[in-house]
Design goal:
By secondary structure, the protein is α+β, with helices and mostly antiparallel strands. Helix content is about 25%, strand content about 35%. The chain has 4 helices and 14 strands.
């Protein structure tokens, strides 16, 4: 009896396993395909963001070529071909080359906007995360002044408020001014220092005023023209005495390594902003996921990345 009972149960167990597998297979298949779909959307989003960032980088570093369509001051736009590999603009090419597996596919939009107005939340001095500020103050309430010496030299920079900093080797500097009270005040900025036998000094001024809780300088960018003197010693010998005379006079001093002034023309001008927008429609192939992942009533998910960067000075 035992042997017969065992033979009768085996076909029954196999049939139960087949039924369970048949019931679970669709669920497992949906989970597997759904995971692949979510992974594809995530990969596409990262690719779109990377492509937009690289496109903006090319735009600001090679503005003379990439942004040749732009006017000098008014906002201008350029739209790349749907397949950016076929567009000669270097920004479009950069988007295509950095789109990963999306290279060669059509994009819903790749647009370049120049002379973009960058909005700042008043009275904060914040700028977009993709835009690197020239300088920054530890206390955000201080007025930030950026400057340039007429000579590429390291000098001490001070102002009449007691603030101090040091210029860089190319003569550039950033000074944080700590205002007091609430009324606007004119501040004198001094640059002094000695390099070997050469002593240089110069000054300029700016006005700081209080906007809500923040101090703002006007102008926020200044240039200090230096006056330099060189001390020399001459020796005269006679048969009986030797005398030394020290004379000082004003002269124009050229320091080794002084950067050549950038005289090249550039459109749009350095200091303006450019925005690259990349839009891609990623297909959603799993019908059950359309309502969760796809745009309303569509079979795709729209992925968009917008990157804003500051145009760099031309170098030729």
């Amino acid at each position: 009896m035992r042997a017969v009972t065992r033979r009768l149960l085996r076909p029954r167990s196999r049939g139960q396993a087949l039924v369970e597998t048949a019931l679970l297979a669709p669920v497992m298949l949906v989970l597997l395909v759904g995971g692949m779909q979510v992974a594809f959307l995530g990969y596409s989003a990262v690719s779109v963001d990377t492509a937009a960032r690289e496109g903006a980088r090319v735009a600001v570093e090679d503005a003379g070529t990439a942004l040749s369509f732009s006017s000098a001051t008014s906002p201008s736009s350029y739209t790349c071909a749907a397949d950016p590999t076929t567009d000669a603009n270097p920004v479009c090419q950069a988007v295509a080359n950095n789109a990963g597996l999306l290279k060669g596919q059509k994009f819903a939009m790749i647009r370049i906007d120049t002379n973009v107005a960058v909005a700042r939340a008043t009275p904060s001095l914040d700028v977009p995360g993709d835009v690197a500020p020239v300088g920054n103050c530890a206390n955000q309430n201080d007025a930030l002044v950026s400057g340039q010496l007429s000579q590429g030299i390291v000098l001490a920079i001070t102002d009449t408020l007691g603030d101090a900093t040091t210029s860089a080797g190319d003569g550039s500097f950033s000074l944080c001014m700590k205002g007091s009270g609430s009324t606007a005040q004119t501040v004198t900025v001094n640059a002094t220092g000695t390099s070997g036998s050469v002593t240089c000094s110069g000054q300029t001024s700016t006005t700081i005023s209080k906007v809500n809780s923040n101090w703002v300088a006007s102008p926020a960018s200044v240039t200090i023209t230096l006056s330099c003197t060189t001390a020399t010693t001459t020796t005269q010998s006679t048969s009986t005495t030797t005398t030394s005379t020290t004379s000082t006079w004003s002269t124009t001093v050229t320091f080794n390594g002084t950067p050549t002034a950038n005289t090249c023309a550039q459109t749009p001008a350095a200091g303006t902003y450019v925005t690259v927008t990349v839009v891609y429609q990623a297909s959603v192939l799993v019908p059950l996921l359309n309502t969760l992942l796809a745009d309303s009533g569509k079979s795709y998910k729209t992925l968009k990345s917008v990157v804003t960067m500051r145009v760099e000075p031309c170098t030729t």
